[in-house]
């Protein structure tokens, strides 16, 4: 018996009019699995998340299949989808301020979710909300529950968001850049909390971020997206230690780390030349070829698929030469 | 350094703008037709709209020599509509224009010249907004007499505070941008920053608001004239035509239809124009799609 | 010791803001944003300033660039107090200290062509002459060509816009570049390009750089010396690597332990 998947995405295409932001993406997050989806702005990672949640901006269309809990989410009506959101699948967004209702007390907002999806009384829901807030290490939860969103700090807001996302023991949590807006010192605490809380509740986690260290710390598998496609996919340990795609390797090398820095400040950071191509002017063949050090004519004309190496590349990075960041 | 960084992002294809452009085109066509109708009325009218011709009274639309028929006194409807367009144009555009000028100056000042200026201007606007506009217009008409100028003044007094608020909030969001910080760093004076950086960036908002208040002005003017406190003959207003036609409802209902229809089409056209312009001019939208 | 004064320095700078008045007859409360700050940068030196948001970085930047007058303490440009200086001295200060802001999309007026934006410092600082050669030169220094001049900001990517913002700062031939989080709004692969560019400029043009960031490792790549600011005070100063490997102040330790790296994540002891 194979483990049922918390979510399985098959050949997802997301676009508006003639432009596609996501161009045929397939992956699966097993139950209780933890997957990272990493990419720069314009890679299509956020549009993928929005498509999974049925929250695409007006005019945008998703094609393909998104299997979750035995149904294809893309075929569900808005009503059926919104009854699932927050119950079997929930989301933590980048900006906690705009995701909370500014005129309702935070405790009530958590209780709302519990009341709506778990079929318990308002009173019981409220008690559970306080309980959840305690689990989120929020100080003086009874008092904090009566606060309005603008009265609490960014880190606290993100904890409230995580509490709401976890309230109904969802099978899957999608976290879209959950710590990007937070201070570095708060980031670590929030990640630690998200990590522990999802494990306790046996929820699967799909972590969407541009931040490789966050993926390394939180996830078991990773998919690297570039220009709307997954270019490398596999266990985090393998992909980050021995990247096979030149883009993955470039990303790892351009991480500023203290490990290999010269004392006199003379070290140079590796950089990937060029820039992420805009959607309407994608290069032919492998979309990364104009920035790739190993590009050949083949890369310019035909698009590689992910093969046994785990990378979609005609000339994968040799395994014998591991990336500097992993050495 | 990378050579690829030199090439700018290629321009985005224009195809996506299709639906927006339809709204804009319809709005533009209606508005231009309306203005043309008002302009032509100065040079050419099929008939004198104020001279009664009793033998020709209450002719139906499509009668020879009378395109849309005549009213109870035998006056040509189409000619009256043309002169009415003139009034609507003058009152609507005039009211909106005065509000635009004062509102922009007040709004920019409130946003840029510190807390005391902001409080003074914003609270004054609040007070003015709390006075119902229609009532003010009625009182003005009753005290200093009705007429085009009174209506324009009443409308601009009515629109200015809302205009001020809109411009103020648009200007505040522009003033938060970093290019304002950069300009301050180069010791540019506030008035210069307002003219050079803020005004061009709120111009889109200004134009859109102008078209919407233009439409609102036409509606209000029609309302006032319908109540009998707008313009008086020999001036003609669509509202006044509605008022006169009201006495003929049942005898010749289309009489009320023509001015009513004109108001609906022109107001709709201006609103479509405003919506279309908003999509084209909004710098935030342009930035987001790029 | 060398008698040459630092090109830009702050001495005992304190700044406090007042809370909004809550009662008519009660004096409004104040809170101290900067507390006795000493900070300096020598010619050709790259200095970092690291701290969390709310630590006072923004206020320090505003005071350092002369946009805000400190309540007490002195801001010295080439040894002379800028708030005591005559108009000619102040003009020279304005010309010599330029700034690069965090968000490149926001730091260029969307309605202004790049060419106009680049000339803006020259116009407002009343620097006469034909600037066309200077434009070409500066664009070359940041890795762009003159085709950019006739375009609008929305036609460029974030990394290109940050290059343009740096070019604008370079236009009046400054001695000091103050960069406030210049890469935190950029993608990882682009960050490296901009960091390397800043380093090259410091080396090739003999510029002084004040690099403000929340990320110690980014600062380590660009500067020789860094100060950690917390709660409006500078708590520790030293070579970035030193700060990273042997942090003394608890606030520095906090910052260092908050840094996540791919390696620590892979070895499973990041969180």
Automatic annotation (TrEMBL), chain A:
This is Peptide/nickel transport system ATP-binding protein. The keyword Cell wall biogenesis/degradation does not apply. PROSITE patterns: ABC_TRANSPORTER_1, ABC_TRANSPORTER_2. Pfam families: ABC_tran, oligo_HPY. CDD domains: ABC_NikE_OppD_transporters (cd03257). InterPro entries: AAA+_ATPase (IPR003593), ABC_Ni/Peptide_Import (IPR050388), ABC_transporter-like_ATP-bd (IPR003439), ABC_transporter-like_CS (IPR017871), Oligopep_ABC_C (IPR013563), P-loop_NTPase (IPR027417). GO terms for molecular function: ATP binding; ATP hydrolysis activity. Its main location: membrane. GO terms for cellular component: plasma membrane. It is a peripheral membrane protein. It comes from the Bacteria. One of its GO terms (biological process) is peptide transport. It is found in: Cell inner membrane. Residues 7-252 form the ABC transporter domain. The keyword Nucleotide-binding applies. Belongs to the ABC transporter superfamily. Keywords: ATP-binding, Cell membrane, Membrane, Nucleotide-binding, Transport.
From TrEMBL, chain B:
Pfam families: BPD_transp_1 (PF00528). CDD domains: TM_PBP2. It comes from the Bacteria. SUPFAM superfamilies: MetI-like. InterPro entries: BP-dependent_transpt_permease, MetI-like, MetI-like_sf. One of its GO terms (biological process) is transmembrane transport. It is found in: Cell membrane. The chain crosses the membrane at residues 22-45, 89-113, 134-160, 198-219, 255-274. GO terms for cellular component: plasma membrane. Its main location: membrane. Keywords: Cell membrane, Membrane, Transmembrane, Transmembrane helix, Transport. It is a multi-pass membrane protein. The keyword DNA damage does not apply. Residues 85-274 form the ABC transmembrane type-1 domain. The keyword Cell division does not apply. Belongs to the binding-protein-dependent transport system permease family. This is Peptide/nickel transport system permease protein.
From TrEMBL, chain C:
SUPFAM superfamilies: P-loop containing nucleoside triphosphate hydrolases. Keywords: ATP-binding, Nucleotide-binding, Transport. PANTHER family: D,D-DIPEPTIDE TRANSPORT ATP-BINDING PROTEIN DDPF-RELATED, TRANSPORT ATP-BINDING PROTEIN. The keyword Transport applies. This is Peptide/nickel transport system ATP-binding protein. GO terms for molecular function: ATP binding; ATP hydrolysis activity. It comes from the Bacteria. It comes from Devosia enhydra. One of its GO terms (biological process) is transmembrane transport. Residues 8-256 form the ABC transporter domain. The keyword ATP-binding applies. Belongs to the ABC transporter superfamily. It holds the Pfam family ABC_tran. Gene3D superfamilies: P-loop containing nucleotide triphosphate hydrolases (3.40.50.300).
């Amino acid at each position: 018996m194979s483990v049922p998947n918390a979510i399985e995405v098959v050949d997802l295409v997301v676009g508006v009019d003639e432009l596609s932001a996501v161009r045929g993406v397939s992956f699966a997050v097993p139950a209780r699995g933890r997957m990272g989806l990493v990419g720069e702005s314009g890679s299509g990672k956020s549009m993928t998340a929005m498509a999974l949640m049925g929250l695409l901006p007006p005019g945008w269309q998703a094609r393909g299949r998104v299997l979750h809990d035995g149904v294809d989410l893309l075929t569900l009506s808005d009503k059926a989808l919104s009854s699932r959101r927050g119950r079997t699948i929930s989301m933590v967004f980048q900006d906690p301020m705009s995701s909370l209702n500014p005129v309702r007390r935070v405790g009530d907002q958590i209780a709302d979710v519990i009341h709506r999806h778990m079929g318990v009384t308002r009173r019981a829901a409220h008690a559970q909300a306080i309980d959840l807030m305690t689990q989120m290490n929020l100080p003086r939860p009874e008092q904090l529950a009566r606060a309005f969103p603008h009265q609490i700090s960014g880190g606290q807001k993100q904890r409230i968001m995580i509490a709401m996302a976890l309230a109904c023991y969802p099978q899957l949590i999608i976290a879209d850049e959950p710590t990007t807006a937070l201070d570095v010192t708060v980031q670590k605490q929030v990640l630690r909390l998200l990590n522990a809380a999802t494990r306790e509740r046996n929820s699967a986690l799909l972590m969407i971020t541009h931040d490789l260290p966050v993926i390394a710390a939180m996830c078991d598998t990773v998919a690297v997206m570039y220009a709307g496609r997954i270019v490398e996919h596999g266990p985090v340990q393998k992909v980050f230690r021995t990247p096979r795609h030149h883009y993955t390797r470039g990303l790892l090398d351009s991480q500023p780390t203290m490990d290999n820095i010269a004392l006199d400040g003379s070290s140079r950071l590796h950089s990937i030349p060029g820039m992420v191509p805009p959607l309407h002017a994608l290069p032919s063949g492998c979309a990364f070829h104009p920035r790739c050090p190993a590009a050949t004519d083949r890369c310019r004309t035909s698009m590689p698929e992910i093969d046994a190496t785990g990378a979609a590349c005609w000339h994968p990075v040799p395994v014998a030469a591991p990336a500097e960041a992993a050495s | 350094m990378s050579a690829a960084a030199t090439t700018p992002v290629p321009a985005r294809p224009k195809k996506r703008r299709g639906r927006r452009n339809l709204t804009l085109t319809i709005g533009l066509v209606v508005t231009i037709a309306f203005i043309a109708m008002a302009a032509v009325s100065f040079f050419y009218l099929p008939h004198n709209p104020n001279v009664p011709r009793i033998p020709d009274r209450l002719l139906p639309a499509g009668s020879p020599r009378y395109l849309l028929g005549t009213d109870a006194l035998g006056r040509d409807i189409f000619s009256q509509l043309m002169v009415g367009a003139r009034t609507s144009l003058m009152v609507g555009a005039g009211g909106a224009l005065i509000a635009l000028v004062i509102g922009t100056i007040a709004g920019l000042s409130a946003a840029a010249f510190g807390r005391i200026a902001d409080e003074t201007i914003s609270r004054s606007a609040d007070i003015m907004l709390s006075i119902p506009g229609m009532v003010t217009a009625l009182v003005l008409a009753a005290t200093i007499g009705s007429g085009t100028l009174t209506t324009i003044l009443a409308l601009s007094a009515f629109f200015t505070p809302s205009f001020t608020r809109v411009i103020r909030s648009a200007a505040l969001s522009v003033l938060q941008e970093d290019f304002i910080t950069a300009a301050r760093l180069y010791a540019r004076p506030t008035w210069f920053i307002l003219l050079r950086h803020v005004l061009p960036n709120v111009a889109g908002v200004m134009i859109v608001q102008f078209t919407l208040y233009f439409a609102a002005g036409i509606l209000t003017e029609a309302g006032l004239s319908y109540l009998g406190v707008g313009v008086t003959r020999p001036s003609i207003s669509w509202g006044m035509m509605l008022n006169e036609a009201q006495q003929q409802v049942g005898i010749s209902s289309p009489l009320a239809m023509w001015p009513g229809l004109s108001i609906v089409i022109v107001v709709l056209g201006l609103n479509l124009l405003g919506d279309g312009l908003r999509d084209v001019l909004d710098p935030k939208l342009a930035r987001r799609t790029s | 010791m060398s008698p040459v004064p630092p090109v830009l320095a702050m001495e005992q700078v304190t700044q406090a803001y007042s809370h909004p008045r809550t009662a008519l007859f009660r004096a409004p409360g104040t809170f101290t944003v900067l507390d006795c700050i000493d900070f300096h940068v020598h010619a050709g030196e790259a200095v970092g300033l690291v701290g969390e948001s709310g630590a006072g970085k923004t206020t320090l930047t505003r005071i350092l660039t002369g946009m805000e007058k400190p309540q007490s303490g002195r801001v010295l440009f080439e040894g002379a107090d800028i708030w005591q200086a005559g108009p000619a001295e102040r003009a020279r200060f304005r010309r010599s200290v330029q700034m690069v802001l965090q968000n490149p999309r926001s730091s260029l007026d969307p309605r202004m062509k790049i060419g106009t934006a680049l000339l803006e410092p020259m116009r407002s600082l009343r620097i006469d002459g034909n600037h066309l050669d200077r434009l070409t030169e500066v664009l070359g220094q940041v890795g762009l060509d003159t085709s950019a001049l006739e375009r609008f900001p929305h036609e460029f990517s974030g990394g290109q816009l940050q290059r343009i913002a740096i070019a604008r700062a370079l236009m009046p031939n400054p001695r000091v570049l103050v960069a406030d989080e210049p890469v935190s709004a950029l993608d990882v692969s682009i960050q490296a390009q901009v960091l390397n560019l800043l380093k090259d400029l410091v080396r090739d043009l003999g510029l002084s750089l004040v690099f403000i960031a929340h990320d110690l490792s980014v600062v380590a790549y660009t500067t020789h010396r860094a100060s950690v600011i917390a709660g409006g005070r500078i708590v520790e100063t030293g070579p970035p690597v030193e700060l990273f490997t042997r942090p003394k102040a608890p606030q520095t330790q906090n910052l260092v332990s908050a840094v996540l790296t791919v390696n620590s994540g892979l070895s499973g002891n990041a969180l």
